[in-house]
Write a structure and sequence with these properties.
By secondary structure, the protein is of the alpha/beta class. It has six helices and eleven strands. A hairpin with a 2-residue loop joins strand 7 and strand 8 (134-140).
Length: 264
């Protein structure tokens, strides 16, 4: 049984695979001060609450964009699950050709997204839009070349910036908006957040397509916590909320552990 961990700046997204099928998903707020014991106690309790026996976890794979948590994740997996986690980092097999100037700069979450997309939609040009703490837009060719892309402030990060960096603007519920004109301060923030992201995705997809995919249009995939927020705008050919977990499963397939936990 496989435990997959996507360690982000805002949340840790967790999934359990049984025979390569995703059976359980749950999340935890991410904090750089979490100890290995705090993480281990949470993971075992969350697994039990989802009717998963923690002792059945014999493999762990993780990607992390929070370096300060990596030691705690590693120690947690060894102490509470008896396994050494596979961490998605430079040097492991990805099945991708990274065309970044410095491949080591590419975030592990972006690589995992690309691996999941290539696995689910092989032989297709792809644009992947991931709505996380930061919103990332990545281009992958049908030859499995990761070309690069864009990184912009995420929806919630933009809202938090308005709240914390201004004197009078409040925190608001993030939701779809029908009108581009807000008639109150709250509506103005909501419409601004919503339509700016719609416009950003459309413009970047259009420009990337014109630059590298003009001969064969790409499949546009939405993922991340806010992807379904934009369902009615016809931005994506597919929405795959658990894309990054599928990428982590593929990482384990390409980098099988030398040994599994021995059950006693």
């Amino acid at each position: 049984m496989l435990l997959a961990l996507d360690v982000g700046n805002t949340q840790i997204f967790c999934g359990v695979f049984v025979d390569d099928e995703l059976q359980v998903q749950f999340r935890r707020t991410s904090t750089t001060r979490s100890s290995s014991d705090e993480l281990g106690v949470f993971l075992r309790a969350a697994l039990r609450e989802n009717d998963v026996d923690p002792t059945k976890i014999d493999m762990v794979v993780a990607c992390s964009v929070v370096p300060d948590l990596n030691y705690s994740i590693n120690a947690c997996c060894q102490k509470y699950f008896g396994v050494e986690p596979l961490m998605l980092r430079p040097g492991i097999k990805t099945g991708l050709k990274i065309r970044y100037k410095d491949p080591k700069e590419v975030g592990a979450d972006r690589i995992a997204d690309a691996m999941g997309a290539v696995k689910l939609y092989p032989d297709r040009n792809l644009i992947i839009v991931d709505f996380g703490t930061a919103t990332t837009v990545c281009a992958v060719t049908k030859a499995r070349e990761f070309l690069g892309g864009n990184i912009v402030p995420g929806v919630r990060l933009a809202m938090d910036a308005l709240e914390t960096r201004t004197a009078q603007l409040p925190s608001v519920e993030i939701r779809p908006m029908r009108s581009a004109i807000g008639k109150t301060t709250i509506e103005s923030i909501q419409s601004g957040l919503y339509w700016s992201n719609v416009g950003m995705v459309r413009e970047l997809v259009k420009r990337i397509t014109e630059e590298v995919f003009e001969d064969e249009p790409p499949l546009v995939i939405g993922t991340g916590g806010f992807a379904h927020l934009f369902d009615r705008e016809d931005l994506f050919d597919a929405v795959v909320p658990d894309l990054i977990l599928e990428g982590l499963l593929e990482a384990l397939r390409l980098n099988p552990p030398t040994k599994r936990k021995s059950h006693q």
